[in-house]
Design a protein that fits this description.
By secondary structure, this protein is α/β, with parallel strands linked by helices. Helices cover 39% and strands 16% of the residues.
């Protein structure tokens, strides 16, 4: 299911207006200045397509999609700031894995990780663990969580919210050195700066969520639809 629906009417700007049009969109969505400039420069390299087409190509070159492999995953540890939506994401993962017949279990991080450390976790079981939340302003939190996922069979996935400030999100992803991310809360924001800051931070993007219920899908970002959304949103 596509997270952001592409418009049938593509935005086409004269090439001379490309930088202005894209720059205005980046400002409206409150992207960090450095990232906004980089995207505009990247898009400007595509001279023979519409503005949203150029932006889509620029995004496609930078996005690193890496959805969860629900058939092979054994242990998933969700780490993120307090209020980022880890519990909702855990329920979605359990539901998605159950739909393909996987046996799943929700566990606290300490208990679940202990089973993996002692190699006591059944190989056919997918264990989804939620780490305690943290205050993103607490620099010591990164070191406290950094070693939690260094256990065979366990992958740490960062969970961040699209509602947060874009630069704060970029700082969190960098500080925690997340390798893979899930971004929540896209149903509650019209500004996509935090989404882009997180998904273009160097971490691979596993999924985004559009709604808090377990049955609300774990979605993927599609560059063309995302570009159209960035250019067509009306500020509120």
């Amino acid at each position: 299911m596509a997270l952001i629906r592409a418009s049938s009417n593509l935005v086409a700007f004269p090439r001379a207006d490309l930088r202005h049009a894209l720059g205005a969109a980046m400002k409206r969505h409150r992207l960090p200045e450095e990232l906004a400039q980089a995207l505009v420069r990247d898009a400007a390299h595509f001279a023979d397509v519409s503005a949203d087409g150029a932006l889509a190509l620029a995004l496609a070159n930078r996005l690193a999609p890496a959805p969860i492999d629900f058939e092979k995953a054994r242990g998933i540890l969700l780490v993120g700031p307090t209020g980022s939506g880890k519990s909702a994401v855990a329920a979605k993962i359990v539901r998605s894995a159950g739909l393909i017949g996987r046996k799943t279990e929700l566990a606290r991080a300490d208990g679940g990780l202990a089973l993996f450390r002692t190699n006591s976790n059944p190989p056919e079981l997918l264990t989804v663990m939620e780490a305690d939340g943290f205050n993103p302003l607490n620099a010591r939190a990164a070191s406290a969580f950094s070693a939690l996922g260094d256990i065979e069979g366990v992958e740490t996935i960062g969970v961040v919210s699209a509602l947060n400030d874009a630069e704060d999100i970029a700082d969190i992803v960098s500080a925690f050195r997340f390798r893979r991310l899930i971004i929540t809360g896209l149903d509650r924001t019209r500004r996509l700066g935090a989404v882009l800051a997180a998904s273009l931070s160097g971490a691979r993007l596993a999924h985004v969520t559009y709604g808090p219920r377990p049955e609300d899908a774990l979605d993927m970002l599609e560059p063309g639809a995302l570009a159209a959304q960035l250019l067509e949103l009306t500020p509120h």
